[in-house]
Specification:
By secondary structure, this protein is an alpha/beta fold. Helix content is 53%, strand content 13%. The protein is built from seven helices and five strands; from the N terminus they run βαβααβααβαβα. It has a five-stranded parallel beta sheet with strand order 2-3-1-4-5, sandwiched between helices. Strand 4, helix 6 and strand 5 form a beta-alpha-beta unit. It is globular, with a radius of gyration of 15 Å.
């Protein structure tokens, strides 16, 4: 099973891309657990909430993997996102998240660029382009230091989809 993670700052089209890719390749994708958690619990979160979100993301990722088909599974965010979120919001990251980063293996990362307009959806926190660029650079640095293939996805929705399918086709 090829596991492809789509990461990037908020409002960069990750969920849209996951939906498009899963439909195109006729498989499932794992949504970002944090969205439902924050909708249910409220947008005021604590460090402990982030640990619950991380655990929920891992459980959801494992559960939906069972339904993946055609040897492909797309994942909207992973523990890299949790690490960055914890460090930005609380200047700390739990060892359990770091251990998951070290032990979970993925076949490819697609890093979504900040070239799409930021859209407020009631959950997003960083509308400033400078902050979004800073977060993008943090993700890029993490991927550079990881030994997994990765690529930047940019452009409008159609360009992103075309680039992503070209990349996915090259690894399947």
């Amino acid at each position: 099973m090829k596991k492809i993670v789509i990461i990037g700052p908020e409002s960069t089209g990750k969920s849209t891309l996951c939906t498009q890719l899963s439909e195109h390749y006729k498989t499932v994708w794992c949504p970002e657990f944090a969205r439902e958690y924050l909708i249910e619990q409220g947008t005021s979160y604590t460090y402990d909430d982030l640990q619950k979100i991380a655990a929920g993301q891992l459980a959801l990722e494992d559960e939906l993997l069972k339904a993946a088909e055609n040897n492909l599974y797309f994942i909207d965010t992973n523990m890299y996102v949790m690490k960055v979120w914890c460090e930005l919001a609380f200047n700390n990251c739990e060892t359990s998240i770091l251990k998951q980063i070290a032990t979970r293996k993925y076949d490819m990362y697609l890093l979504c660029d900040v070239d799409l307009p930021w859209v407020q959806d009631g959950l997003r926190e960083y509308p400033e382009l400078e902050m979004r660029q800073r977060i993008f650079k943090i993700y890029k640095d993490l991927l550079i230091n990881n030994h997994t293939k990765w690529a930047i996805i940019s452009g409008d929705a159609d360009e992103r989809f075309k680039t992503a399918t070209t990349i996915v086709d090259s690894i399947i």
